[in-house]
Specification:
There is one protein chain. With 55 residues, the protein is α+β, with helices and mostly antiparallel strands. It is built from two helices and three strands; from the N terminus they run E-H-H-E-E. It has one domain. A three-stranded antiparallel β-sheet has the order 1-3-2. The longest helix has 15 residues.
Length: 55
């Protein structure tokens, strides 16, 4: 979901995976950034909240 051009919000990930929001933030921080070494960016998008993208 993070690699889609439109990225993913915490809420969208929570619905898709039935995870709690704090678990998603930890997964992005630890697994995606540190272990996979991907560059994760975030920006605030009107109507969606904070959107994360991985490259």
């Amino acid at each position: 979901m993070l690699r889609r051009p439109e990225g993913a919000s915490i809420e969208e990930i929570a619905v898709a995976f039935a995870w709690q929001k704090h678990t998603i933030r930890a997964a992005i921080s630890v697994a995606v950034k540190k272990k996979l070494g991907l560059d994760v960016t975030s920006e605030k998008v009107d109507g969606r909240g904070r959107v994360y993208r991985a490259r």
